[in-house]
Amino acid sequence: MKNKLTLKKAIELIDKKEVSLKEIYDDILKVYKEKNKELNIYLSFDENSFEKAKNEKNKPLRGLPIAIKDNFLTIGFPTTASSNVLRGYMSHYESTVTKKIKEAGGILIGKTNMDAWAHGSSTETSDFGPTKNPRNPKYLPGGSSGGSAASIASNMAIASLGTETAGSIRQPASWCGVVGLKPTYGRVSRYGVIAMGSSLDCPGPITKTVEDSAIILNFIAGKDEYDGTTSNVPVLDYTKNLKKGIKNFKIGICYIDHPDISSTIVAKKTLEAGKVLENLGAKVELISTSKTLEKNKILSHEYAIGVYTVVQRGEVSSNLARYDGIRYGNNRSCFGSEAKNRIILGTYTLSKGYADKYYIYAQKVRHLYVKNFKDLFSKYDVLISPASPSFALPSGASQGNPMFGELQDMLVEPSALAGICGISVPMYKDEETNLYLGLNIMSDYFQEEKILQTAWAYEQKTNWNEWKNI
């Protein structure tokens, strides 16, 4: 099945004329018709996308099919953010990221399901029904980019794009056993992405391998005149030093001494990952978790749960205020319960007399995470931790739990609040359930090259990634 090819391998075989683009599209269409109804990965899908692909074979991405999370504005597909408020909405312009993918010769094959407005970590809050985990359909794929992660795990796309606000790329990548890269805030443009938490949102790739993520990042990173938060820091060729190795890297292992984590399988497997990296020439050591800001210790992830809840809800209440049913979309009665809850809480925390008590105080604590990471990266090249506190949870687990997302993302929330880069790569598979755990690798601002080098070295030395030898 040619749909199992990685992005890198597909490009190589097309160039050698050993595989045709049509074979890849035919295999993806076959799997789509067989499995999408059950898994609910795509909300819209172009069954005739090969006709567009034929004219892109001489461009860098060779006309290969890319799945897109349904919060990127796209011409030719509805953009709904998985909400009934935007059911059937057709954008008049293209997001910067999807425009760059098209210019590089990638074909948008379909829009993937997500938690409505990206509110959640399960893809169960979608107004168009939940997505199931292709590794085991009795379990959740994670979220909010659950559809994009599932499109890769099911081989229904060659690569995909998601967005992360506090784990929404890395957590579903972990649960689906794929690779998910969250760039530094400002490395990739947010223009044309439906805003959720504007000071946090980061578009990024979800792919089969680390190298595939590096290839996609090469095309989507960079300054954008339409997004004032994008950076002028030069974009590197992220594939150039990918295989350079990590000899003499200093790596710190985080969070696994916390009482809620220390005795779990995720702590054990993270320690084993540390040993792998040590055997590759890195200097690896444990970093103690602290409830106060202390030098050479990592600030507990517990505070990030409350900080993210307040900051994100506040920004949500502002961003969703535009959906009034007058200018476009349906009226506010079409909001789901999760969106309504977040709007109400955010409005409350920003109201007169409470903003100082909640929102401004949360931003002060957020700055402590920034200071903490700045201190740690003066000593370490990268930090590692579990991407999620557990394997994927059973379908229905998010129901009736208003803090489900925050609790599932708690180990990646501090890095998301600080705006640093991180990547999740498969680090273990349970043979009985066929479910995965992910290793979260983090580094300082605009140090994507370091996390990619570390992730690639780990991926090559272990056998958890099923695509690495394809």
Can you tag this structure with a few keywords?
two-stranded parallel sheet, 470 residues, globular, alpha/beta, Amidase signature (AS) enzymes, 11-stranded mixed sheet
Written overview of the protein:
With 470 residues, this protein is α/β, with parallel strands linked by helices. It has helices at residues 7-15, 21-39, 49-53, 96-103, 146-153, 170-176, 210-220, 265-279, 302-319, 337-350, 356-376, 404-408, 413-418, 448-461, and strands spanning 42-45, 65-69, 107-112, 159-164, 179-182, 202-207, 250-253, 283-286, 289-290, 298-299, 382-386, 421-430, 435-443. The mean pLDDT is 97.
What is this entry, summarized?
34% of the residues lie in helices and 14% in strands. The protein has 470 residues and is α/β, with parallel strands linked by helices. Helix 4 links the parallel strand 2 and strand 3 (107-112).
Which architecture would the CATH scheme give at its second level?
Alpha-Beta Complex
Alpha carbon gap, first and last residue: 11 Å
CATH topology, anyone?
Amidase signature (AS) enzymes
Contiguous low-pLDDT stretches (5 residues minimum) are: none
Tell me how many strands there are: 13
List the helices and strands and how they pair.
Blueprint: H1 7-15, H2 21-39, E1 42-45, H3 49-53, E2 65-69, H4 96-103, E3 107-112, H5 146-153, E4 159-164, H6 170-176, E5 179-182, E6 202-207, H7 210-220, E7 250-253, H8 265-279, E8 283-286, E9 289-290, E10 298-299, H9 302-319, H10 337-350, H11 356-376, E11 382-386, H12 404-408, H13 413-418, E12 421-430, E13 435-443, H14 448-461
Parallel strand pairs: 2-3, 2-4, 7-8, 7-11, 9-10
Antiparallel strand pairs: 1-3, 4-6, 5-6, 5-12, 11-13, 12-13
